[in-house]
Amino acid sequence: MMIANAIQRMIAHCEGSQHDIQHFLKVYAYARTIGLQEGLAPDVQQRLELAAIVHDIACRMCREKYCSTKPEYQEPEGAKMARPFLAALGLPEAEIDRLCYMVGHHHSRDYVDGPDFQVLMEADFLVNAADHGLSQDKIRQMETDLFRTQSGKALLREMYLRQAPQA
């Protein structure tokens, strides 16, 4: 029920921004899929799913305050905004700290320090690659540079690197 409550609250937080709502729901779906396929422990899976839901919590505010959602704005603001959102779900402080760390660094590969964070990065890339129209070369580069899970790599290949059948 916690995940459903978090999704409902995040939809309300987005104040009707279809882009923001669709983005976090897609990242959540890929994160959930990869995490389950990778066999994450239930507590790690829940943390991953919550991180996917709130990872872009600061986007709307950053657009208003900075006219930008660049990582240098979004990450620190997101870490601050995620704390009360997550506390309202009744999470323990240590779990909130971990989630805020992930939200506060989710565009920074150098900070990935566990399977929950790794899968979040992969899921976010799967969505952003389409949103930003990345080239095949960039996607292949990210497959090597970012992706570590077999499930994430399989999704990336099926979604972006699969050759269409010849007519």
Key descriptive features of the protein:
mainly alpha; Hypothetical protein af1432; 9 helices; globular
**Beta-strand proportion:** under 5%
What is the multimeric organization of the chains shown? single chain
CATH fold description = Hypothetical protein af1432
Structural class per helix/strand content? mainly alpha
SSE order, as H and E? HHHHHHHHH
Taking all Cα atoms into account, the compactness measure Rg is: 16 Å
The CATH homologous superfamily is called Hypothetical protein af1432
Largest sheet: none
Overall number of structural domains:
1
Shape: globular
Uncertain segments: none
Helix content: over 70%
Number of helices: 9
Descriptive account of the structure:
With 167 residues, the chain is mainly alpha-helical. The chain has a single domain, classed as Orthogonal Bundle (Hypothetical protein af1432). Helix content is 72%, strand content 0%. The protein has 9 helices and no strands. It has helices spanning 2-13, 18-38, 42-54, 59-66, 71-87, 93-103, 115-131, 136-145, 150-161. The longest helix has 21 residues, at 18-38. It is globular and about 50 Å long. The protein starts with a helix and ends in a 6-residue tail after the last helix.
Sum this structure up briefly:
The chain is an all-alpha fold and 167 residues long. It is 72% helix and 0% strand.
Furnish the topology, listing elements before pairings.
Layout: H1 2-13, H2 18-38, H3 42-54, H4 59-66, H5 71-87, H6 93-103, H7 115-131, H8 136-145, H9 150-161
Helix pairs in contact: 1-3, 2-3, 2-7, 3-6, 3-7, 4-5, 5-6, 7-9, 8-9
